Amino acid sequence: MFPFPHEVNPALRSHVDAQTAYLNDISKSFFRSFQQAVDLNIQLAQTLLEESSLASKQVIGTDRHSELLSAATARVQPTSDKLRAYQQHFTRLAADTQADLTRVTEQHVQTTARTARALADEVSRDAAQQTERGLRAQQETIRQFSDPFVNGGDDTRSSSQDSGRDGAAADYQHPQSSRNHPDGQSQRSGFAG
């Protein structure tokens, strides 16, 4: 009814469990890094928005062109410092992500490799057993076809001999051994029996 056996191979189950644990930890690491990158980008956007708001207030509050230029240049330095800090945070986040991924991989590589070896050994052992069974079945089939009256053909030989004695041989008459005469009597050859 079901295309798959109900019993799962323990080696396969342990390998799938190890792979699942590894992938779960990797995805947690990626999502944590992604969340930190998003938070960092939101913080940068808020900072740049605040800086532009302060700059626009200063520009609007100035009466002379010289004050306008000095207000704009006064905001350039803090903005560039904040962009440099953002770049440093992002570089640190990338390095932390790489270190976290390396740690997770080192943590799971031994377990995954061990379960993969166990699964490969189990599969090769099963394949060898299946191959051996297949070869035995082929040898048995070839042996039966090469001499059908040995072992497997005993039943058919004895049944054909029994039916030959009872029915078929008695009904069969050689065409030259008896002939029907027009008067309804059969003529036998010179043998008296």
Order of helices and strands: HHHEE
How many strand elements? Answer: 2
Low-confidence stretches: 156-160, 162-175, 188-193
In terms of quaternary structure, the protein is single chain
Mean of all residue-level pLDDT scores:
77
Q: How do the strands of the widest beta sheet line up side by side?
A: 1-2
Rg for CA atoms: 47 Å
Helix content: over 70%
Give the overall shape, derived from the CA principal axes.
rod-shaped
The largest sheet is:
2 strands, antiparallel
User: What is the rounded distance between the termini?
Assistant: 66 Å
Output the structural class: mainly alpha
Topology:
Blueprint: H1 10-61, H2 65-146, H3 154-171, E1 178-180, E2 186-188
Helix pairs in contact: 1-2
Question: How would you characterize this protein structure?
Answer:
- The chain contains 3 helices and 2 strands, in the order H-H-H-E-E.
- It is mainly α and 193 residues long.
- The protein has a domain at 10-110.
- The protein has a two-stranded antiparallel sheet.
